[in-house]
Amino acid sequence: MALTDSVTVLPGVGPKRESALADLGITTIESLLTHFPFRYQDLRVKALNEIADQEQVTLKGIVAAPPTLARFGRKKSRLNFRLLIDQDVIPVTFFNQPWLKDSIEVEAPVMIYGRFDAARKQLNGIKILGNGKADPMASVYPSNAGIRQKTIQQLVTAAWEQYHDQIQNLIPAPIMRHYRLLDRAQMIHDMHFPKTLNAAQAARRTAKFEEFFRFQMQLQLLKRHDQTQAGTAINFDNSKLQAFIQTLPYELTDAQKRVVNEICADMKRPHRMNRLLQGDVGSGKTVVAAICMYAAITAGFQAALMAPTEILAEQHANNLQALFQDLPVNIVLLTGSTKTAARKQLLPRLADGEVNLIVGTHALIQDGVDYHKLGLVIVDEQHRFGVAQRQALRQKGDQPDVLAMTATPIPRTLAITSYGEMDISIIDELPAGRKPIATRWIKNAQIDSAVQFVLSELAAGHQAYVVTPLIEESEAVDMKNAQAIYERFSAYFAPHYQVGLLHGRMKNDEKDNVMSAFKDNQYQVLVATTVIEVGVDVKNATVMMIYDADHFGLAQLHQLRGRVGRSDQQSYCLLIADPKNKNGVDRMRVMTETNDGFVVSQKDLELRGAGDVFGKKQSGLPEFKVGDPIADITMLSVAQDEAKKLTETPHWQQDPDNASLVAYLKQAESNAYMFD
Question: Which has the closest alpha carbon to 482: 531, 554, 534, 550?
Fold first, then answer.
C-alpha cells in the first residue's frame, strides 16, 4: 500500500467513475487526499435567537405533524411540515425533493439544514441531516457533472481510513517547528474532517505552506541544475570597463552599480547565466546593458541585443553608437528592413568577428546569420519574445550568457513563481535629476481645462501624447476614439501646432514615419492608441493625456505614463475617466498615489486578478490548489526563502529529516534528472 496507488483500489471506482475523477485531476490516493474542500458548511445546531435573517443554519427539533406534498406540473413540488423546537413551531419547506417525504416521521427527532427566513419565522430546507448525529462541519468539494459531492466525501473517507498511516511529512521538521505547522496527516485530516472552523483554518495554513514550499523546491532544483550547466566564462578587462564607466556623462545610481556588479560577476562564472534585469521606465537599463556588452567585448566576445520592434532596435543602436563612439566597438543594425545589399555586406563581417556588437529584431536569429564568438545575448522587453526565439538566439553561440530585460515591472508574485528559476536583478531607483511624473485624475466634465493645460505646455516648447483605447467610432462601447480626437485636436491646435495620428492598423513603415516625425518635433501632439506603450523615447514630450483611462489596466497605464518624464523637465500624466464602479475608482487612485511600477503591478494583480492582467492561459501564474499567490504573497515569499536555504545546504538530500521530501520530488518525472 502506498499513496501512489490508483484510486481504482477503492470500492465503487469503476471505469466511468475513474474517468470523472481524472477530469478533476484525481488519479491516485495522494491526489484524492489532497483534493481539498473549498469551503465548509457549519452544521452546528443553533438556537432560534442566535440566527440572522437568510443565514444558512441547522435546526434540531421534533416533527410536529405529518408532511404534506403538493405537486406543480411534472417536476415541481413543495413539501411542508412543522418542526417543534422547545416552545416554538417552525414551518419547514423543501422544494422539488418529493422523495424526502418518506424520511419524515411524526414525533421523531430530526436535524434540518436550510436558509432561515426571519420575517416569516420559517426554514427553507436544503437537506435533512438525520436524527442528530451529523458532523459539526461538512466539507464542500470542487466537483463536476460526473461525480457528486456525496461520492467524493465517501471516497475521501475510505482513502483516509485505509491510507492515513502511510502519510509522511514533506516539510523538514525544523521548518515545521519554526512556523508552527501541523503534521501532514493531521493537516489532511483537519482539511477534510474538521471539528471546528479554527481547526480547518489551521489545516489550510499548513496546506498552503506545503504547496508553496513543494513548488519552490522544484524551482530551486531547476535553477541549481541550470547553474551547473557548462557556459561561457567571460573574463573581461576590469580596468577598461572602469575607464568606460568614467566616460559616461552622468554618475550611475547605486541601483545601477549594484546590478552591474551582479551581472558581471555572473558573466565571469563558467556556467550559463540566466538572469532577468527589471527596471522601471526611465531607470537606466540601457546603460547597464551597454556596460555588460562592453565587458564581453573586452574579453574578445561578440554581444547581441534583440528588441521586439524596428523602431526600438534603431533607438538602441543610435544610443549605443553615441556611448561607444571613441571605443573599438563595431556596431551594426540588422532588422527586417535592412536592404539586401547592406545585409550581404554585413553578414561576413559578423561571421569573421569584425562586428562585435549587433543590434536588431528577430532578424538576428534567421538562417544565414552566423556569429564568430557570441558570448552575451541581451533580450529587451523579453515578454514580447517566445521561449523558442530566445533559445534560437542562444543556439547561435556556444552557450552564451543570456540577460533578459523588461521595463514592465513584474509583481513580486510573478517574480517568485514564474521567474523563480531565473536570477533577478532590479534597478529600483531613478537617475538623479529625474522628477516624479505628476499624475492627475480628471473627470470628463473637466476636459476643457485639461486641453488648455496641454496648450500651455506646447507654448513652452514641449510636446504631448494623447492616448485613446479605440481607433474608430463604435456603437458598442461609448469611448473616445483616436480618429475623432485627431480631427478635433487638428482643428483646435491649428495653425500653430501640428497633430499626428498613430494606431495599430497602420503598416509598420507608416508607424515608423509618424513616430520619427514626432521625435523630430514635426508633430507637437501625437494622438495614438497603445502602440506607443513600450520603449519610445522622446525627451521633449512632457504630457501624457489618456482618455477613458479606467478601461486600461494599471500596468498598461504605468507603461504609457513612462513615455514622458524622460528628461529633467517636469512631466504630467492626465487620466480622463468617469469610472462606473469602485474597482475603476481604486485604479485611478493607485495611479495618482504612486510612481513606483512594482507597487502598481502588484496592485494590478490584486485588483484584476492574473487572468485579466495576462490572459487566462498566459497568466504566468501556476495553478495552486489551496494557496493564492496574490493574497498569500508573504507566505509564498517565506516558502521561497526556506527552499533556497535548504537547497544551498551541503548534502541536504542525505539528511534523514528530508527523506520523504526527496522521495516526493523524485517521483515527479520532470525532476528525476535533477538528482543525478
Answer: 531
Element (H, E) at 137: strand 137-140
Cα 549 to Cα 528: distance, rounded to the nearest angstrom: 14
Which segments of 399-446 does DSSP mark as H helices, in order?
A: 412-417
Q: Which long-range contacts (CB under 8 A, 24 or more apart) does 329-333 make?
A: 329/294, 329/297, 329/356, 329/357, 330/354, 330/355, 330/356, 330/357, 331/355, 331/357, 331/358, 331/359, 332/357, 332/358, 332/359, 333/358, 333/359, 333/360
Work out the angle between the directed axes of helices 482-493 and 447-459 (0-180°, nearest 10).
60
Strands 525-528 and 499-502: parallel
Which three cell numbers mark 452? 488648455
Quick one: which of 87, 103, 100 has its CA closest to 47? 87
Q: How far is CA 667 from CA 64, 88, 184, 211, in A?
A: 59, 59, 18, 16
SS3 track for 181-221: CCCHHHHHHHHHCCCCHHHHHHHHHHHHHHHHHHHHHHHHH
Over the stretch 366-394, which tens digit does the pLDDT of each residue have?
888 899 999 999 988 765 555 566 567 66
Distance of CA 321 to the CA centre of its chain: 36
Read off the pLDDT of residues 533-555 as tens digits, 9 standing for 90 and up: 455 678 899 999 999 998 888 87
The letter for the amino acid at 562 is G
CB atoms inside a 10 Å sphere around CB 528? 27
DSSP letters of 606-673? HHH-HHHHH-STT--PPP-SS--TTTTHHHHHHHHHHHHHHHTSTTGGG-GGGHHHHHHHHHSGGGGG
Here the cell at position 639 is: 516558502
3-state SS assignment for residue 42: strand
Cβ atoms 105, 63 nearer than 8 A: yes
Cell numbers that stand for 19 in this block: 474517468
Pairing of strands 76-85, 88-95: antiparallel
